[in-house]
Amino acid sequence: MQSENYRGEPDAVSEDVLERHREAAAPIQERYDLYIGGEWSESDGGDVVESLDAITGETLAEYQQGTAADVDRAVDAAEEAYRSEWGELSSSERAEYLEELADAIEEKAELLSTIDTLETGFPILTTPALAQQTAGQLRYFASVARSTDKGAVPSTGEMEKHHHIYTQEEPYGVVGLITPWNGPLGNLGVKLAPALAAGNTVVYKPSPRGVVSSFEAMDIIDDVLPDGTVNMVPGTGPEVGEAISSHSRIRKVSLTGSTAAGQSVMKSAASNIKAISLELGGKSPSIVFPDADLETTAQGVAMGIYGFNGQVCTAGSRLFLHEDIYDEFLETLSATAEQMFQMGDPLDDGTMLGPLIDHKHLDRVQSYVDEAVEDGATLYMGGESQDIEGLGGAPFFEPTILTDVDNDDTVACEEVFGPVLTVLKWSDREEMLELANDTEYGLASGIWTQDLQTAHTVSDELEAGVVWVNCYNAFQTGVPHGGYKQSGAGREMNRQAYHEYRQTKTVNINLSDTWPRM
Prior knowledge:
23 strands; plasmid; Aldehyde_DH_dom
């Protein structure tokens, strides 16, 4: 966890940074318990862990770590809430609750955004978008709930005249939600909104490395939603995550995380044939054609890989660059990245690149770069961790570009999850597309061209759940998001997600006095 992986130097943090961070953290409670059945309660195991400021190493809050027994209690509370209240509400009544919750989230958006910056190191320029996304998701799915009707299915053949057949969608009941540390509040909103709108109650596990904003979100939920509608059990994946994904009374699980985490959930869910939705890792190609505008494309490519400190599953981490503009574009890109992505205190409005989540992850990112160079890659830019003066040895890593990389090199195949871009030169379009698709992932992709025909035809050929053209990481509420291949199953952020939190029932009514011939 964050507390175990912090190896900074608190004594080397400047006084002005300390003061800024302590002031920002002042509204945070000193300790949080589990939130179950509308009450804050002690964990069955009683273990207390710390969440640390990513820069200063000071304790942001202590919190109770849950156990499998606590998941059982949360499921009991969620079942009771589903049967006695939430499951009995009309879709319009649920929508009213979601809109009230959206208002409450917006009222505390500044605090929630600041917490995510303090705990994860995401720049304060970016985290407010996550609070806005959560409120937007709640409002969007409130409207979806209001507009969903029963579906009639016309019968044909022998039953056409004498049977009335229709379908209706129903909630699963209790669902489990598991989220990662990168953008905790935004990831919670993407899952919570459709789950609640669809009529389910929730057992929720946030990542131990991005948990404090979720506690504050539960405090907001406590004032808005009926007791037991949402229950939060923080803890480790092997214990709490496993307990949720294998629980016989949780009928659906949705996870955002690594592909390995998704595989683990699938194995656990198989024990009782549980429905699952997975948003997993990526190794997304960003393809630059020779007619692309170099300046704007360089900005977009840089944002695609270095935004959110490079710690985002959709990161455009594989750059396919046409040979005609190869040298010129790399010069433009490196200059753009150096100008745009200044490393510094993530609470500073001028910072675009904050620290990685912890020092253990820093070691992992560094190892990928070192191995690539040993295997023959050229370090075109960056490639080293950085000690920023006054920031106490926080785990910063430079914006990095690796050239002379083969598509089957480890650094081009595995998700680095840091600000590391690999570059592959191309000339033949078909060969390039074959390489772009030659990955076990298929979450996102980018195309940079001024030619409309190229944009459409290449979009058709890319094996990815999202194709951005002349933009990147341009998320929009109401637009489906999800992956192909090992990047996941299911879609989020649009109406399809609502239906994925519901199951379909067919009702077949015989209107005659006789059985139909078979």
